[in-house]
Structures are given as structure tokens and as C-alpha cells.
């Protein structure tokens, strides 16, 4: 996270969702000094996180200064005693840079003569306002003349100088080869006394102060941490500071090859080999000669085991009986090849591949002796065993010889390539004759003195192509020096820091003094060779620098080849800017990509600021004082900030890369980047080629802003504008590339003032052609020409000058003013910029822009008044405003309105605001103005019209909609009139998001306290009750008129007979209506379904009460459970028992039409309805469905229409169903004739399903309590038992079930207990479970023993039925076996019938899956998860860890719902699906949001809420 400078202190809030694992004894750790005081990298502050399952966890970090910090969260793991450390997060706070203010560069639209002149006051300079110029001090002359350079840089609009290293230079004279890090280069001071005892520090600071105070120039210096000059005097005293064979032994053979190369170079003439290279043939002679020269050194001996020594060692051990018994795998009688592999893999070879000395690899004699004795069991003589070992050693040596051969070849190839580049290639340095002082190739080691070469030969630094930046190539096992893979800098010794300060104390202290001294003198660091600097070195030394200068600006150029690795360096080191270079682009398209990536800022018309910020409250950091109002701005994380150079000081010139002309056009484009920008004096002055930092000794020419000042005049304007735009907040940009043209537009989003740059790139030399670009139309905008120019060159050669560096003879030619005409078309007024006829490659021009006719109050108007407009809507109104799927909307509007379709995106999920918010959430957060929706909004206002029109058209039926419809229309219409097309997406997002937030608030405020005080997940689930509860015309709770009703799921169950199901309603009613406080809707559904009671059942398919179908054995019990829940939850809930309902059918169950005179003749109270259900079951239910046959169900076989239910009065259990019908929720009927499952239920569950018994028991317990208290008008049911009819009280029936349940349903864990239970041992597939059904007919008895999730329903509604230990055991097994990411597997994966992928379109011949027959045979259903969680919560508190600590249970269960939380947040349907395939995989045939899936998790969350209270 990149954070802004703390000009005014602010707070970073780290927020974690409620119920996440971090709340389990969690701590937040950071090295940010929360308590104040000095920052220390290794000092961490802890904040204990609250254990809160209902509110987000928030940690506030008060930010008052710059720095780079790390944080993470730790919490208890799932294993006892374990801790989990979250991933590290980093936040880098930009430094505060203070610089002298300057006068505006423009007066009106003309360049002011005094523009950009330095003023006396300081301003805060954001990083995006930096304009940096690189200067090489050795080319500036002595400090006495530096004022001229400062004046030139300042006049060209720069505000910071990047200094290559100013320290004393080594023998090579390269600024990057520093001889003494604590002394400044004596040659740059005109007076030797300036050096002083402080190494010139005071004098330099005096000079830098002049630059800062008089010329407005801050200072940035290179910091070189990775190497020192090869003649640094302190290396002789501290050779341990370098990598030598003494401290890094594997470098020994690399040093030997390097020494051989020097000796070979000195001996070329005596060997008859060429000393100069003029052809490839010469190179071949030299490389082959060196190869032969090297052979005499027997380099192979570094790799292999010494055969003679091995033989002697093993024989000596055998003779002395000093034998280490072999303790590895059996090796007897193995082949020598196998034996060699075993020895190698067992790690018995000491020094294997270490290369530290010749024959450093060996196997200790006793070890080898023990091995050969174990291997060659038939050999006893020591000589013979020693010979056997030699054979093994020979095999061990084979790959080592191969490795030596390969490494030697690699080294020789590297030498060949370096000879070719340095001595033959045209673009190489052509080093000349080979000698001892000018050897064949660069030396890899600096020899500090001749004595003790193993100590005083230290490795030179360099770089490697495509190297791992986190791996030090000087350390073992790297062979980079041996294989000569390092492109070495012969004047630089690589520094050896080791693992930390204790590894090399003197070097660490010395380099710390170096960086802290620099940090007190300079405002910024550029980390040289950053990607090769060990991370721990950079971290420690930069930390030390920031202690003395907290506002230190740090930049670096990385060559990691990976943006991910770049981020590692930026995060760990606290790098403020990464250097990027426009010169790396190979064509205009790539350049435009780099500009977009690194210089865009935010796109014009960005909406995050308008839509994503919110008002909040900030508690006092100390816990004392008043709570403050604040603005909350979400942070998306950051890409590394760019310091964008047109050209860096170590790359080829544009004349070499592209064309000299392109310097102006590309340099101009850089200045319009929303980033720090940089250039070099040689770029501005049009130097023809890259200057050699080592060998070049000429001095700069100060050309100022004169006629032949290169790009100077243009840079004055452009750099000044760059800084002014950063200070003025011109953060929005647009990049357009067409052919060789690139257009950049910068805009201030509040004033809509801007500047537009048109650049004609010149990637190819020679052309003067204007090229082509379409006229640039700026909608509703006025544009005025400011300046334009191109450079004309009289030639591309510079006369040789031995004293002064000069640029190409280029003269900047101003472009005559370009008048921008105003026009108008069907989209409205516009300004049109047309490139003039003469606009050669390399040209640019700048215009001021100002959006015209913008409504200054538009932002406020669009974002105000929503709460009043949406605040009076009821929940049915809000269903229309927020949701409505395609099928619902079409039904409600007679097909006139459906969901909106966006070109290249498709149809929205919902017609209402949630449909728009799904894409807008992403668009708003990430300013994705390239999204198809944004393109559609720019193209026209069709979406504007749709949003308000669909509400206005429904106000006759829903009059409350008139207020939000008007609010939306007023704002959308005003945007249509006053905002140009490119701003439509922004204002559309503002309006929709404000409306959505207001509507959402209105819904939540109408909910229960549990919801309104809950966390986002609770809110999101509660909104599914609004999503599912709405009014359509084809489904109702009244046959004569439309009323609101609950949809089972969307999109499949949106309307018609399929919308409202008895079972689905009453599984969902508790969560969606009762927990949310919508008691009115709950009651309406109870009364409606009670009114259609028939045969003692309620319908599964309601069909608006017109043609209900009675084929569901469990539905009445779900309804009775809901009546019980309603009586407990609703205010005066028990009064519902006395509510009367008119009966849809006569009491004799005669089928009559809904408008028949006999319909609704009789009435019953809800208490009588309850009693009738119980009595009819006690009597036994037997009937054939009305209208049985294919007109009712074309899949069902004839027997399936016969409904049978009876009570077994020995156990009290209810039995019912047959092989050909499916009366519970697992109700898939086979449809495939081809596969042979047509008319056969996939899961008939005929018998006593466990959940029905649980629901029955719950009802009986409740009625017994009511009856005993005189609150229910009945005592029990009449039943005929043993031929005698008598009253069975509710308690008696209750007790029968209580006494029989465990015996009938439990499958004991211990087989020795089988006799205590009604189990058939032969049928048991898994123990410790509860049967899914009891009493399935004998031919399918195995189905009783299938492990399914239904037992948890019974546990939840009637926990008293279960032995707590048995229950918890079964639940833990379900947690392990059945639980899935978003639901519960419907069948044990160990079951032979398990088929987890549901595909209703499958028309194959596999009976198990054809036409989705496996609907409930493994696919993972959402709603049982809620019951599992509630049951687990109950029984773990009774018999598990929760008995001692409830938090243990809650942590575990909240971890299980994290996938559901994430799904609801991200899915376009904003709900939980009906089912998923294996492991949560998407199922195409599932409802995307299902009432009971959402409801049952709300049930669980409410249970947790109750416990919390």
C-alpha cells in the first residue's frame, strides 16, 4: 500500500470481517510505532484483536510521518496449540518534500516571461510533481561553477537534481567505483581546504543549500551499497569485506581460472598466438589456446573423488577394523551403478560439489568400509573390498567429470563472447592489444596484494542475465564466477555483508556511517544496482538512513524481469518510486502502453472518489476524548510508483535508438505523466551518443534556454506544467495512440480544467511526413493553443571538441498558433483539434482545455436526497427497486419490461439497482472505464431511460415507487442534459450507488435488531429476504388477486406455479421472515397454506391456491415448526393460534375449484388446523392424488400417485411413502426412458425419514407445553391401538418417540453395542451415524444406513432426542465427510451411489445420472449447512470443546461459513445457490440464489447473536 504524505495526520484502518479466523486469539503485529517513539525494524507492537462474531475488527494506525512498515495478523490454528501467521502486508508512506514555490508558467494561455521563477515560500511537493535532472559531477567542473548548472536546471523547470555518486572516485574514475565512501571527490572542490576533516561534507551541504534555496532544486544522490572501488584503501585492512576463497571457499577454482587467464594473456607471444583480435578466427585460436593452457591445471580435481585416496582410506579402515556399520537401505548384491546412487542420495560424500579445493569430495574410510561390507557380502578380503569400492567411486565420478566438462565449456563460451564484444564488435569498446595489463577478458578478482592470494583476492562485482535477484551469485551453490557468467565490473569489488551485522561488523558499521551521512545531506537516494543488493542489507541500511531523515525519498531501477518481484523490493525496502524508461519502448504502441501503465493516474471521469468514499466515525486513538467524524477512503493496494525517465544516464541516445527528432516528442509525453519524471542533461542538450562514465572527461556546456539549447525551451514549459498539474491535482488522464501519434490529456476533476498534449513520435529516422491522426474531438470543451514546436537539425554529427560536451546542431522551431474551432453534432458541442499540415515527426503541441457548460452543482445534486426518496418504501417496493429477476419483471409487467442487456456484456441479473451494482462495484473501485457498461453509457442514454421508466410504469400498482422514480429521473435527466458523454459513467455510478445505498439502508432499517446491528454478511443475507419476497401476477397467496409471495429460488422459480412451494416456504420462513422481523409476511404465508389443508397435508406446489398438489409428506411438519417459531418470535405470536382461516376445500377433502361455491365455506382456527394435521396422521392418511396421471405428472408411474402415511404406535414414529413417490425434500423423479429411471424416484425415502420424526417430536413437545399451560384447546389425538380407540396425549406420543428414537436411528460406533439398537449389521457402511430413514422396505433396507445430512435437522428442532455424545460424534463425522464449501454433500462419498455432479440435461444411458437422477446423491446442497451449524453449536456446547470455551466452537463454525460470505459478496445474484457440484464447483442447473440456502444461514447467525447477548 502506498500512502500519501502526512501533511495532516490521518488514520489507516485495517479492517477484518467479523467471524474470520483472525478473531481467534488474534493479534495484529506491526513495526509501525503505534505507541510513538523511534521506528525500529525489529521492534513489533501488538494489538490484541477482539473476539467478535458480529462486528468487523478494526485497527487504526495514526499516520504522522513517512516510512516503510510491515504488518500481519496471527491467530490460533485449527490444531491445538498451533498459531497461524497471515501473509505480510506492507505500507509505504510517501515522504514530505518541501521545495520553493514558483510562479505559474502561463499567463492566460501564453508562456509568461517570469513564469516558473523561484519564490521565497516553500510548498509541499507531491512525488508526482518531481521533475528530476541527472547530472554527472565530474563533467560539471569545480563547485565554483555549479551555480550556472543550477540556474540552467531551474530555468528548464526541474526541481530536483539526481547526482551520480559524489564520493572520491577510484582508479577507474567511474563515479560508481567509490574509493572512499566517507570522503567527497577532491577534484570537484576548487580549494583543497574544502575537504576538511569531514571529507568535504560541510562544503557540499553548503552548495546543496544554494541549489535548494536559490534555485528550487532538491538533491537526490546515488547510494552504492553493493561494491567498492578496487583500490579502496580499507580493503587491505579489511579483506573480509570482499568475497575471497578464504571466506567463500567455492570461489577457489574460479580464482584459479582467472589467474590462468592472466598468465595466458601475458604469454600469448611466446605461445605463438595473436595479441590483437581482427577476426572470428583469431577468437577461435585464442579460446582453443586457453583451453589447452587450462588443461595443465587439472581443474577436474575440484569435482571428483580421489580414487587412490579412496582406496587407501577404505583399506586402512578395513585393516584396522575401524568400520562404521551401514545404516541405510539394504545394499546387498546391488550393482555398482545402484550402489553409487545409494551413496550419493544418502549424503555420505563429504564436500560433494563444494569445489572448495582439489579432491575436496570424499567418503570417510570407515563409512566406505561399512558400506562395501554390506554391499559385497560374498567378499571378505580387504584388498578385494577396496577394489570393489574403487569401482563404486568410478561410477560416482562419472557425473562429476561431466559437470566439470560442462562448466569448463560454459566458461570458455563466456570468454569467447566477451572477447568478441570487447575486441571485435562494432558497438563494443575495442580494447586493443592483449597483454598482462590489458588481459584477454575482464578480471574476475582484484588482487589486493600478491601474498596470501586466498585472502587478498576478492571477487569483482557485476551482473548476470536473468538472474534471481534474491540469490547472491557469489555464494555457493552459484557457480557464476567459475562459469564466467558474470558481466563483471573490473573496477568494483563486491561487498560481503553475510547474514547480518554480526557476520561482518566493521563493514556494516562503515556502510551505515556512509548512508546516514548521505541521508543528512540529501533529500533522496537512488539505490544503485538495487536488484543485486541483498534485501536484508538494503532494509537495514535504509532504516538507518530514515532514522536521521524520516522524509528521505528513495528510488531505484530494478531489472528483476517480474512485476511481482518488483513489488517485493518496493515493499521490503520502502522504495517510493521505481525508475521506468520511455526509451525502452520499440514503437508508439508500446510507448503508449508504458504511459498508460506508469503515467495515467486515474482515467478521466473516474468515479472512485465520488462513489467509494463514505462518512464514518473515528474513535480517539488513545481511547480518551470525543469521537470524530471522518471520511473513509478504501484502499485497493498499489502498483509501484514510477519515476518515469525519457532517458537514463546509462542508456543509448535516441539518435542511436530511434531518431534525434523523437527526443522532443517523447520528452514532452513524459511531462504529462502522473508520476515523478526524469531526464538527463545529455538528453535535453541532444547529445548524439551515450557518454562513457569511466573514460569521458570533457565538461558540460551550459546552454540555458538559448537558440541552440536543445530541448531547453520546451522543457521549461513542460516541466513547469508537470509540477503545476501535480500541485493542482490534475490526477485524471487519458492516453490515446493512433499510428505515430500519442495524445495525452490531463484534467483536474473538480474544476474540469485541463491540458492536452499532441505528440507525433519519430521512431524512424528521415521522415518529415505529417502522418495521419483523426481530428481530436473534445466534447463540451473549449481548447486554446499554448505552444508547439519541433526541432530542425542541420546535421547529425558533432564537431570534435576535446574540452566540451556538445549536442547535435538542432534548433527548436515554434509551431504557429493552431486555432481550435467549435462544432456541434447530434451529441452536442465540441472543440476539434486538427493537426496542422506541417507537423513533422518529433513535433508536439499543448492546449489548455476547459469543460464548458458543466453544472457546478451536479455532483451535489446527484448525491443528495436519496434517503428521503427511498425511505418510505416497504419491503415489497424495495423488491422492485433493488431486485426482480427477468421472469419476475416480465410477469409483473405483462412482458413489457425485462432485465437490461448491455452490449458486449450481456443481460443484467436483476432489473433493479442490485443488477447495476454488480458491475458497478468493480468499475467504481478500480475506475474501470473501459468496461462495456461504461462504453455503453458513453454511446447513449438508453440505460438512463430504462432505470426511471421501469419504476414509473409500475407506480399505478405500487404508488410508493413514484418518489424514487422521480428522484432517479430528475438526476438522470439532468446528467443527460449537462454532462458530456465521457462523464456519463461517473454520474451514472454516483446516482445508482447513492440510490442503492439508500434503498439498502431502508431495507435494513425495517429489519430486526439482529439484522440492523449485524455485520455485512448478516445484511447481505437479510437482503435475500427482500430479493425473494415480491409481487408478481402469476403467483399469489390469494387465488383472486395478486399478493406478495416468497419465491423458492431464482431464476428458475420466479413466477407461475413454480414460484411458491410449501416445503421451501416453511424451510425458509424462519430465516427470511422471522429472524429479519418481517412477521407480517410470515403470518400471511402461514395463513395461506393453512387454508389449503387437505388430507392432513399442505400442498407442496401452491399454484396461487388454485390447483395445489398434495404429494409432500414433510411439508405440514415444516409448517407446524414455523407456527411454533412464529409464536415464540413475533410480538404476541401465540395469538396466531386463534386466527381463523377460510378453508379452500370442504372438510371431506372433496376437490373443488377455487371459485366453486363450496370453496371457502368453512373456517378453522390455526389451532384447529394444527390439531387436524396431527389427528389425520394418527388416523392414517391414504388417498390418491386428484387428477392423477400424466396431466398431473408426466414422469410418475401410476403407483406413485397413491399417498400413504401411518403411525407405528409402538414407537410413535410416522411412516409413509412407497417406492414410486418421493414425499420429502429429496424429491427427484427419474425422467429417462433411455437409461431406465423414468418414474423411479432417485431417493424415495419411504419409511420414517429422520427429519420428519424430529419435526414431529418438536411439535409434540411444544403442544404438550401449551396444553399443560391451558394455551392450546386440545390434549392429544384419538388413536386406535390394539383394536381400542383412545386418547393419546401429546406427552404420551412425545415420550414414545423419545424412548424409541436412539434405538431406531443410531448406528453404534462400537459393534459390540449393536444388540442395543435396531440395526442390521450386514447393512452398516459407516458407524457412529444416525440413519437417514428408519423402516425402508426390506428390499431396499440399505438406504436406511446411508449417511446424509438430514439428521442435523432433527438435532436442531428436537435436540432432546439425541444422546449428546452420539450426536457430537455424528456431527464431527459429517464435518469431516459431508461438509462442503457452500453446503453439505447429500450423500457420503464412500457410498456406492455417490455421484457429485448434477446435470439435468444428461440424456445418456447411465441410470445413476441420466436426467439428473443423482440430484440428491452427492451434489452439495446449501440449506442443510445451516442446520448442521446449528446442531453442531448446540451439541458442542453440551459435550465438546464449547462446554469449556464457547469461543472454540464459534471460531470453528465461523470459519466454515467464510466461503459463503465471499460468495454472497461477489456473485451477481447476491445470494447463495441451491446447490453446487463436488467441492463447491458451479452447477449450471442450480438456482443461483435459493431462499432456503440463504435462510438457514441466517438462522445460524441469529443463534450466535442470541448467545452473544
The average pLDDT is: 95
Structural class computed from helices and strand pairing: alpha+beta
The number of helices is: 42
Characterize the overall form.
globular
Quick rundown:
Helices cover 34% and strands 18% of the residues. By secondary structure, it is α+β, with helices and mostly antiparallel strands.
Walk me through the structure.
The chain is an alpha+beta fold. Helices cover 34% and strands 18% of the residues. It is built from 42 helices and 60 strands. The strands form 20 sheets. The protein has an eight-stranded parallel beta barrel, surrounded by four helices. A seven-stranded mixed sheet has the order 25-31-32-33-40-35-37, covered by helices on one side. Strand 32 and strand 33 form a beta hairpin. Helix 6 (307-319) packs antiparallel against helix 9, helix 11 packs across helix 12 and helix 39 (1423-1439) packs parallel to helix 42. The radius of gyration is 42 Å and the shape is globular. The two termini are 38 Å apart.
Amino acid at each position: 500500500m502506498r500512502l500519501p504524505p502526512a501533511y495532516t495526520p490521518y488514520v489507516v484502518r485495517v479492517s477484518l470481517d467479523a467471524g474470520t479466523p483472525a478473531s481467534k486469539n488474534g493479534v495484529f503485529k506491526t513495526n509501525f510505532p503505534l505507541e510513538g517513539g523511534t521506528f525500529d525494524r525489529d521492534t513489533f507492537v501488538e494489538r490484541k484483536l477482539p473476539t467478535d462474531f458480529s462486528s468487523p475488527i478494526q485497527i487504526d494506525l495514526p499516520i504522522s510521518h513517512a516510512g516503510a512498515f510491515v504488518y500481519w495478523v496471527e491467530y490460533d490454528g485449527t490444531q491445538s496449540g498451533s498459531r497461524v501467521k497471515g501473509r505480510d502486508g506492507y505500507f509505504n508512506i510517501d515522504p514530505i518534500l518541501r521545495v520553493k514555490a514558483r510562479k505559474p508558467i502561463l499567463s492566460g494561455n501564453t508562456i509568461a516571461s517570469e513564469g516558473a521563477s523561484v519564490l521565497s515560500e516553500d510548498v509541499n511537493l507531491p512525488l508526482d510533481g518531481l521533475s528530476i535532472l541527472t547530472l554527472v559531477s565530474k563533467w560539471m567542473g569545480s563547485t565554483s561553477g555549479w551555480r550556472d548548472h543550477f540556474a540552467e536546471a531551474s530555468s528548464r523547470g526541474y526541481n530536483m537534481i539526481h547526482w551520480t555518486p559524489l564520493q572520491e572516485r577510484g582508479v577507474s574514475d567511474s563515479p560508481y567505483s567509490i574509493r572512499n565512501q566517507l570522503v567527497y571527490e577532491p577534484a570537484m572542490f576548487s580549494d583543497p581546504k574544502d575537504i576538511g576533516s569531514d571529507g568535504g561534507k560541510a562544503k557540499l551541504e553548503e552548495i546543496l543549500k544554494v541549489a535548494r534555496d536559490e534555485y528550487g532544486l532538491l538533491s537526490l544522490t546515488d547510494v552504492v551499497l553493493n561494491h567498492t572501488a578496487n583500490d579502496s584503501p580499507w580493503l587491505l585492512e579489511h579483506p573480509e569485506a570482499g568475497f575471497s576463497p578464504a571466506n567463500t571457499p567455492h570461489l577457489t577454482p574460479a580464482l584459479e581460472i582467472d589467474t590462468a587467464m592472466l598468465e595466458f594473456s601475458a604469454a600469448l607471444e611466446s605461445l605463438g598466438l595473436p595479441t590483437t583480435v581482427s577476426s572470428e578466427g583469431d577468437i577461435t585460436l585464442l579460446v582453443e589456446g586457453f583451453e589447452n593452457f587450462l588443461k595443465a591445471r587439472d581443474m577436474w580435481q575440484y569435482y571428483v573423488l580421489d580414487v587412490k585416496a579412496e582406496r587407501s582410506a577404505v583399506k586402512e579402515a578395513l585393516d584396522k577394523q575401524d568400520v562404521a556399520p551401514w545404516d541405510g537401505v539394504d545394499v546387498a548384491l546391488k550393482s555398482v551403478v545402484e550402489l553409487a546412487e545409494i551413496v550419493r542420495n544418502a549424503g555420505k560424500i563429504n564436500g560433494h560439489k563444494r569445489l572448495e579445493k582439489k579432491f575436496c569430495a570424499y567418503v570417510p574410510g570407515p563409512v566406505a568400509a561399512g558400506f562395501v561390507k554390506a554391499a559385497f557380502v560374498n567378499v571378505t578380503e580387504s584388498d578385494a573390498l577396496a577394489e570393489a569400492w574403487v569401482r563404486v567411486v568410478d561410477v560416482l565420478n562419472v557425473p562429476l567429470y561431466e559437470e566439470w566438462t560442462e562448466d569448463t565449456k560454459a566458461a570458455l563460451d563466456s570468454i569467447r563472447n566477451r572477447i568478441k564484444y570487447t575486441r571485435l564488435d562494432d558497438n563494443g569498446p575495442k580494447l586493443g592489444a592483449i597483454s598482462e595489463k590489458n588481459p584477454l577478458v575482464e578480471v574476475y578478482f582484484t588482487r589486493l596484494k600478491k601474498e596470501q592470494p586466498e585472502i587478498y583476492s576478492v571477487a569483482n562485482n557485476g551482473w548476470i542475465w536473468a538472474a534471481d535477484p534474491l540469490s547472491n551469485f557469489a555464494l555457493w551453490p552459484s557457480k557464476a564466477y567459475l562459469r564466467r557468467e558474470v558481466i563483471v565490473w573490473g573496477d568494483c569489488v563486491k561487498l560481503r555483508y553475510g547474514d547480518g551485522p554480526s557476520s561482518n561488523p566493521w563493514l556494516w558499521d562503515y556502510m551505515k556511517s556512509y548512508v546516514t551521512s548521505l541521508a543528512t545531506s540529501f533529500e533522496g537516494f537512488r539505490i544503485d544496482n538495487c536488484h543485486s543488493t541483498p534485501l536484508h542489507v538494503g532494509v537495514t541500511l535504509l532504516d538507518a538512513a530514515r532514522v536521521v531523515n524520516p522524509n528521505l525519498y528513495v528510488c531505484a531501477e530494478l531489472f528483476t524481469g517480474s512485476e511481482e518481484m518488483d513489488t517485493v523490493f518496493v515493499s521490503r525496502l520502502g522504495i517510493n518510486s521505481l525508475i521506468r524508461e520511455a526509451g525502452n519502448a520499440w514503437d508508439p504502441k508500446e510507448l503508449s502502453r508504458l504511459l498508460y501503465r506508469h503515467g495515467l493516474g486515474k482515467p478521466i471521469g473516474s468515479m472512485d472518489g465520488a462513489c467509494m468514499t463514505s462518512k464514518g466515525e473515528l474513535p480517539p486513538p488513545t481511547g480518551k476524548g470525543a469521537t470524530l467524524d471522518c471520511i473513509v477512503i478504501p484502499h485497493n493496494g498499489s502498483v509501484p510508483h514510477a519515476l518515469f525517465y525519457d532517458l537514463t544516464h546509462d542508456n543509448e541516445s535516441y539518435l542511436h535508438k530511434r531518431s534525434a527528432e523523437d527526443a522532443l516528442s517523447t520528452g514532452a509525453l513524459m511531462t504529462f505523466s502522473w508520476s515523478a519524471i526524469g531526464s538527463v542533461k545529455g538528453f535535453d542538450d541532444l547529445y548524439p551518443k551515450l557518454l562513457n562514465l569511466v573514460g569521458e572527461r570533457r565538461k558540460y556546456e551550459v546552454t540555458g534556454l538559448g537558440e541552440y539549447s536543445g530541448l531547453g525551451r520546451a522543457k521549461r514549459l513542460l516541466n513547469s506544467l508537470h509540477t503545476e498539474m501535480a500541485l493542482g491535482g490534475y490526477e485524471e488522464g487519458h492516453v490515446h495512440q493512433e499510428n505515430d501519434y500519442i495524445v495525452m490529456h490531463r484534467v483536474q476533476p473538480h474544476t474540469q480544467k485541463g491540458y492536452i498534449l499532441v505528440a507525433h513520435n519519430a521512431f524512424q529516422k528521415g521522415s518529415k511526413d505529417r502522418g495521419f491522426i483523426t481530428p481530436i474531438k473534445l466534447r463540451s470543451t473549449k481548447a486554446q493553443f499554448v505552444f508547439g514546436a519541433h526541432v530542425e537539425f542541420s546535421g547529425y554529427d558533432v564537431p570534435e571538441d576535446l574540452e566540451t560536451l556538445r549536442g547535435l546542431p538542432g534548433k527548436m522551431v515554434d509551431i504557429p498558433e493552431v486555432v481550435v474551432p467549435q462544432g456541434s453534432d447530434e451529441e452536442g458541442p465540441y472543440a476539434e483539434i486538427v493537426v496542422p499540415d506541417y507537423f513533422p515527426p518529433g513535433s508536439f503541441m499543448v492546449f489548455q482545455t476547459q469543460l464548458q457548460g458543466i453544472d457546478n452543482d451536479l455532483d451535489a445534486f446527484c448525491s443528495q436526497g436519496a434517503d428521503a426518496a427511498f425511505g418510505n418504501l416497504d419491503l415489497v417496493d424495495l423488491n422492485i427497486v433493488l431486485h426482480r429477476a427477468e421472469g419476475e419483471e416480465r410477469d409483473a409487467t405483462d412482458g413489457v419490461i425485462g432485465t437490461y442487456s448491455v452490449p458486449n456484456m450481456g443481460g443484467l441479473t436483476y432489473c433493479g439497482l442490485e443488477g447495476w451494482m454488480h458491475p458497478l462495484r468493480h468499475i467504481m473501485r478500480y475506475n474501470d472505464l473501459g468496461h462495456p457498461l461504461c462504453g455503453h453509457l458513453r454511446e447513449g442514454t438508453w440505460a438512463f431511460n430504462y432505470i426511471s421508466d421501469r419504476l414509473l410504469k409500475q407506480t399505478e400498482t405500487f404508488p410508493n415507487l413514484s418518489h424514487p422514480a422521480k428522484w432517479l429521473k430528475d438526476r438522470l435527466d439532468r446528467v443527460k442534459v449537462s454532462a458530456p458523454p465521457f462523464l456519463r459513467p461517473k454520474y451514472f455510478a454516483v446516482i445508482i450507488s447513492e440510490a442503492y445505498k439508500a434503498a439498502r439502508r431502508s431495507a435494513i432499517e425495517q429489519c430486526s435488531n439482529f439484522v440492523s446491528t449485524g455485520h455485512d454478511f448478516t445484511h447481505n443475507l437479510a437482503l435475500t429476504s427482500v430479493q425473494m419476497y415480491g409481487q408478481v401476477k402469476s403467483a399469489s397467496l390469494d387465488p383472486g388477486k395478486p399478493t406478495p409471495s416468497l419465491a423458492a429460488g431464482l431464476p428458475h422459480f420466479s413466477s407461475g406455479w413454480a414460484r411458491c412451494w410449501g416445503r421451501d416456504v416453511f424451510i425458509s420462513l424462519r430465516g427470511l421472515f422471522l429472524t429479519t422481523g418481517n412477521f407480517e409476511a410470515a403470518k400471511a404465508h402461514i395463513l395461506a397454506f393453512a387454508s389449503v389443508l387437505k388430507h392432513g397435508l399442505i400442498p407442496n406446489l401452491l399454484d396461487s391456491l388454485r390447483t395445489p398438489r398434495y404429494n409432500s409428506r414433510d411439508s405440514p411438519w415444516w409448517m407446524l415448526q414455523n407456527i411454533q417459531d412464529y409464536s415464540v418470535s413475533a410480538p404476541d405470536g401465540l395469538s396466531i393460534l386463534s386466527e381463523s382461516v377460510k378453508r379452500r376445500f370442504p372438510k371431506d377433502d372433496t376437490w373443488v375449484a377455487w371459485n366453486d361455491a363450496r370453496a371457502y365455506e368453512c373456517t378453522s382456527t390455526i389451532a384447529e388446523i394444527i390439531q387436524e394435521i396431527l389427528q389425520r396422521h394418527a388416523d392414517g392418511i391414504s388417498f390418491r392424488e386428484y387428477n392423477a396421471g400424466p396431466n398431473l405428472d408426466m414422469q410418475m408411474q401410476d403407483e406413485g400417485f397413491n399417498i400413504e402415511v401411518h403411525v407405528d404406535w409402538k414407537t410413535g414414529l410416522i411412516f409413509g411413502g412407497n417406492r414410486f413417490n418421493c414425499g420429502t425434500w429429496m424429491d427427484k423423479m427419474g425422467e429417462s426412458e433411455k437409461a431406465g429411471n423414468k418414474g423411479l424416484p432417485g431417493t424415495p425415502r419411504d419409511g420414517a425419514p429422520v427429519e420428519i420424526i424430529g419435526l414431529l417430536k418438536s411439535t409434540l413437545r411444544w403442544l404438550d407445553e401449551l396444553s399443560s399451560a391451558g394455551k392450546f384447546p386440545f390434549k392429544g389425538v384419538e388413536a386406535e391401538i390394539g383394536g381400542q380407540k383412545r386418547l393419546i396425549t401429546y406427552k404420551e406420543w412425545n415420550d414414545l418417540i423419545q424412548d424409541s428414537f436412539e434405538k431406531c436411528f443410531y448406528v453404534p460406533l462400537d459393534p459390540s453395542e449393536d444388540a442395543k439398537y435396531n440395526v442390521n449389521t450386514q447393512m452398516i457402511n459407516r458407524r457412529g451415524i444416525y440413519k437417514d430413514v428408519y423402516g425402508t422396505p426390506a428390499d431396499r433396507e440399505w438406504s436406511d444406513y446411508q449417511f446424509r445430512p438430514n439428521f442435523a435437522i432433527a438435532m436442531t428442532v428436537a435436540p432432546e432426542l439425541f444422546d449428546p455424545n452420539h450426536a457430537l460424534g455424528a456431527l464431527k463425522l459429517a464435518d469431516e465427510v459431508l461438509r462442503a464449501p457452500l453446503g453439505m454433500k447429500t450423500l457420503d462419498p464412500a457410498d456406492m451411489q455417490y455421484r457429485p455432479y448434477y446435470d439435468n440435461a444428461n440424456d445418456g444411458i447411465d441410470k445413476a445420472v441420466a436426467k439428473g437422477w443423482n440430484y440428491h446423491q452427492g451434489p452439495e446442497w446449501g440449506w442443510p449447512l445451516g442446520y448442521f451449524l446449528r446442531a453442531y453449536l448446540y451439541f458442542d456446547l453440551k459435550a465438546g470443546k464449547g462446554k469449556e470455551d464457547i469461543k472454540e466452537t464459534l471460531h470453528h463454525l465461523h470459519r466454515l461459513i467464510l466461503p459463503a460470505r465471499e460468495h454472497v459478496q461477489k456473485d451477481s445474484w447476491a445470494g447463495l445457490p441451491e446447490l453446487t457440484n463436488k467441492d463447491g464447483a458451479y452447477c449450471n442447473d442450480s438456482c443461483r440464489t435459493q431462499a432456503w440456502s440463504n435462510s438457514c444461514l441466517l438462522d445460524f447467525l441469529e443463534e450466535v447473536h442470541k448467545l452473544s447477548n
